[in-house]
Write a structure and sequence with these properties.
Blueprint: E1 5-6, H1 25-35, H2 52-55, H3 61-68, H4 74-80, H5 86-109, E2 111-114, H6 135-145, E3 152-156, H7 163-168, E4 175-182, E5 195-199, H8 205-223, E6 227-231, H9 249-265, E7 270-273, H10 282-303
Parallel strand pairs: 1-2, 2-7, 3-4, 3-6, 4-5, 6-7
Helix pairs in contact: 1-10, 5-6, 8-9, 9-10
Protein name: Histone deacetylase superfamily protein
GO molecular function: histone deacetylase activity; hydrolase activity
InterPro entries: HDAC_classIV, HDACs, His_deacetylse_dom, His_deacetylse_dom_sf, Ureohydrolase_dom_sf
């Protein structure tokens, strides 16, 4: 069977073309993966909307209602940085459903990747940093509370700290939060993850990959999770508009393969979400995000998953 990849046409709704957030990158990523021969559109798995009762496992029901009704306060709108629309609200809930489907596919087949996800700045009762609902926290609570897993480990390699995830899951010891992030970057006020690994500005491939290997060699045997949620943000790339690290395409690919091989080598299912990535060259950005899926395909073909 093909590598499970999750996508939906809702992911790139109409959006201001000059906005800082590259909303069209999800559609362009799908196009890139199809055009490059990695997948066919008919093979992509389409998720359902995430039910509100599952969203509410990680979010205040009153906040969910406010956002879905377009009734955020001015302060919350400022924190979020995205204009509200019904299409964006639907996209947001659909994308959480996509991450949930990806996690279920990973538990069944060992490996799966989403063409979206990684909204790690969303908090229990408010949005932040282009993130509305926190798919990583929702998945963690859902799988733990449904008994599908006993422990989940979130390995967040986005260049920005996963502050929302850390705060939502702070009192959930069965969900281990790990954040590798540039120490001098958004958010200014950091949360406390279970494991924070701050990285100096300008770090390149070799030093970064050693940190990843060392972290996984220590943390995976220590916690022995039933699932790893991997946030494969490409804002660590040297050409990213909002990141301050210096990884190359080859470095990002090596990181992604390393994470997946570490997990699968210990018989731990892993799901990849794309996380952050910012560039005015949207097609180049889509190709950069696609490094995750191409890396996953190589691992899939050689690992005996399925």
């Amino acid at each position: 069977m093909p590598l499970p990849l999750i996508y939906h046409e809702d992911y790139s709704p109409e959006f201001p073309a000059d906005h800082r957030f590259p909303m069209d990158k999800f559609r362009l990523l799908r196009d890139h993966l199809v055009d490059s021969g990695l997948t066919r559109d008919t093979d992509l798995l389409r998720p359902d909307l995430c039910p509100p009762e599952i969203l509410a496992l990680a979010h205040d029901p009153a906040y969910i209602e406010r956002y879905m009704g377009g009734e955020l306060s001015r302060e919350d709108q400022r924190r979020l940085g995205l204009p509200w629309s019904e299409a964006l609200a639907r996209r947001t809930v659909r994308a959480v459903g996509g991450s949930l489907l990806a996690a279920e596919q990973a538990l069944e087949h060992g490996l799966a990747c989403h063409l979206a996800g990684g909204t790690h700045h969303a908090h229990y009762d408010h949005p932040a940093g282009f993130c509305i609902f926190n798919d990583l926290a929702v998945i963690s609570h859902y799988l733990l509370e449904s008994g599908r897993v006993n422990r989940v480990l979130i390995f967040d390699c986005d260049v920005h700290q996963g502050d929302g995830t850390a705060r939502i899951l702070h009192n959930t010891p069965e969900a281990v939060t790990v954040s590798l992030h540039c120490e001098k970057n958004f958010p200014a006020r950091k949360a406390e993850s279970d494991w924070d690994i701050p990285l100096p500005m300008g770090m390149g491939d070799a030093d970064y990959l050693k940190v990843v290997d060392d972290a996984l060699n220590y943390l995976l045997p220590l916690y022995q999770p039933d699932l790893v949620l991997y946030d494969a943000g490409v804002d660590v790339h040297k050409d990213d508009a909002l990141g301050y690290l210096k990884l190359t395409d080859e470095g990002v690919a090596a990181r992604d393969e390393s994470v997946m091989r570490h997990c699968l080598g210990r018989d731990i299912p892993v799901v990849g979400v794309i996380g952050g990535g910012y560039s005015k060259d949207r097609k180049a950005l889509a190709r950069r995000h696609g490094i995750l899926h191409h890396s996953a395909q190589r691992v899939w073909q050689s690992s005996g998953c399925h």
